[in-house]
């Protein structure tokens, strides 16, 4: 759903951050992080700065690792 709809990349980054605490939400967090990166690469929402991209990337990578607590 994160990729299917045109959500603002910052909203998806926040969702990835917010879903980090529960193991059951790992897939949700990962998809939100990847959706944020995709949205940024497509130019949706705003002109991202490097820190925005790095944050979304860090959240997506952290969610893909078991027992991550970023």
From TrEMBL:
Organism encoding this protein: Hydrogenophaga crassostreae
Region (Disordered): 1-25
Tree of life domain: Bacteria
UniProt protein name: Uncharacterized protein
Biased composition (Basic residues): 1-11
